[in-house]
Structure formats: C-alpha cells, structure tokens
Design goal:
The protein is an alpha+beta fold. It folds into two domains: 34 residues; 48 residues, SH3 type barrels, CATH 2.30.30. It is built from one helix and five strands, in the order αβββββ. The chain is flat. The relative contact order is 0.11. The mean pLDDT is 85.
C-alpha cells in the first residue's frame, strides 16, 4: 500500500513539474503561430531573422534578406520579433554624453 502511495505521489510531482508546464508552453507556441501574418518579423529556430511574406497551411515564405526568400515549416518559427514600440527602457538610467563626466581622482 505504501508503494502505491509513493508511486501516485511521484506521478503527481512529475505532472506538476514537467507535464503541465510543457503543455502550457505548447499552447503559447500554438497561439503565437496563429498570429503569423504577412509582414510579421520572426526569428526561426535556426536563428535567422526574417519577415513573413506569405502564410499557407503549414508553410511560410520568409524574406531573410532583400530579394532572398525561403520556405519554412510553420513550426520552425521560434518567436515573433517585438516591435520597437513595445521595447521600453525601464532601468531609469539616463544617457550620458562621452566626456561629460569627470573621473574622480584615485587615492592610492
């Protein structure tokens, strides 16, 4: 009986820490792939950056350089590149012009 309880607890731990997060990532990936339309900037699983030209059933035509396009499987898309408007500098630091800050003297 104790062995059965240990097995059930082990399975529950496996489900909580491995299976459930993997399913959530799969759902997020599927939702991201559904958002792909012409003009979307993407990163492929191989690290190529490009712009989606056409979207067909399970294929994408992606322009990776001016005049150079490749056909990819939809599942080869790793991420959508965020817009520059979405990226905000939130560290609270201000830009400093070179030479505008004087160095403090060192005491040796």
């Amino acid at each position: 009986m104790q062995f059965l309880i240990i097995m059930v607890l082990g399975f529950l731990l496996l489900w909580v820490f491995a299976i459930r997060p993997a399913r959530r990532r799969q759902a997020e990936q599927a939702a991201m792939l559904e958002q792909l339309v012409a003009g979307t900037e993407i990163i492929t699983a191989g690290g190529l950056y490009g712009t989606v030209l056409t979207v067909e059933d399970d294929r994408l035509t992606v322009e990776i350089a001016p005049g150079t396009s490749v056909v990819l499987a939809r599942r080869a898309v790793a991420a959508i590149v965020p817009d520059d408007d979405d990226l905000e500098q939130t560290d609270g630091l201000e830009a400093v012009e070179p030479g505008s800050v004087e160095a403090e003297p060192r005491l040796s």
